[in-house]
Amino acid sequence: MCSARPNHQEIVIEPASDARRSLQRTLVRTGAVTGAFAVSTMFITFLVKVLYPPQNPVENAEWQVLREKALAEPDNMVVVEAFRKLDTELRQQYFSTTRLLNTGALIAIAAGIASIVLWVIAGFLRYRLFVPSAVWASEVEEREKREALQALIAGAFVAVLLAVGVALLARPPVDWRRAVALTSAREIKPDLQPKPRAGAEDQSSPAESQMAIRSVRPTDVAKQDEIWYEKSREGVPPISPAPGSAVEPPVAREGLPLSQAEAQAFWGEYCRQWPRFRGPEGAGISRTGPVAVTWDVPTGTGVLWKSEVPLPGNSSPIVWGDRIFLTGATPEKLAVFCYESQTGKMLWQREIPSGASPPLDPKKVAKETGFASPTPATDGHRVYAIFAPGDIVAIDYAGNVVWARNLGVPDNVYGHAASLECFGDRVFVQLDQGSRPQEGKSRLYALAGATGEIIFEIPRPVQNSWSTPIVVRWQDRWQLITASTPWLISYDPFSGTELWRFHGMEGDHAPSPVWLDGVVHVGNEYSFWFAVRADGRGDVTGSHLLWKAEENLPDLCSPLAFGDFVILLASWGMVTCYDARSGEKLWELELEGSFLSSPGFAGEYVYVIGEQNHSVAEGVESPSAICWVIRPSREGGEIVAENALGEGCTASPAFLNGRLYIRGRKHLICIASP
Question: Are 187 and 177 in contact (CB under 8 A)?
Answer without folding.
Answer: yes
